[in-house]
Here is the input.
Amino acid sequence: MHKNLVIIEGLPGSGKSTTAKLAKELLDKNNVDSKLILEGNLNHPADYDKVAYFNKKEFDQLLRNNSSYRDLIIDISVKKSDGYFISYYIQKKRRKEEISDDLYKRIIDNDIYELPLKVNKNVILKNWQRFVKKAKREDDIYIFECCFIQNPLTIGLVKYNASKERIFNYILDIEKIINKLNPILIYLKQNYIEKTFYKISKERHSKWLNSFLNYYTKQGYGLSKKLSGFSGTIEVLKKRLELELEIYNKLNINKYLIDNSHYNIEILKSALLNIFQRETLL
Here is the structure.
């Protein structure tokens, strides 16, 4: 049975990017065609990053309220069956002088991951459906770094503190869609959350850290528990891990859990090799 999708999941700092790149290298070495899609890819085929969404009514309102930019807005928008999409970050870089700061801010307000959870889910599920339809016609194996468990759980828990049932149903609905691709899920478990997060906080820019801490503690679950700062963020990450492992156990797709707490690259390579051989990818 042909496999079209490998998904790497785990908490921040668990080694997702490294594992996804190793998976790509392993497949390449064995002459297996694959496409690597890392987190933050602005042209992600199944997810959206730095993309705004408007339904027909909202889009018409955007045009009316910014009549002097009407032609520009239409030009930078992509119309799909479920609405209008603007890859605002890409378009701002391309057309910096044309897009005013006020217009840019108005577009950003409709970022897909700032929308109400119900709207976000509907938009994301339709994009997964489009991706699956496309991927089924191809022979390549797609390797995704997160976006299956992480993104629904993050917006559901961290942003909106939605019920566990609602969050899990979001992920299970994605599972139903991607089942047609015979997916393989690889989950990277980290046993030392505080140590791991401290490590990545030192590796990344202070602006990223402040933004991450605010996102995790000033809304949703963190706010409801009156958490704050670094220690509060750790508590949210612990809750996130708890839910991720619970939903992992509920999933019916082929799945593998790797303990990557010690970042041993050789053990990681060996684990991936065993998984791919078992799944007859090699």
User: Anything to note?
Assistant: The first strand starts at residue 5 and ends at 10. The mean pLDDT is 97. The beta strands are 5-10, 34-37, 52-54, 77-80, 83-86, 141-145, 184-189, 254-259.
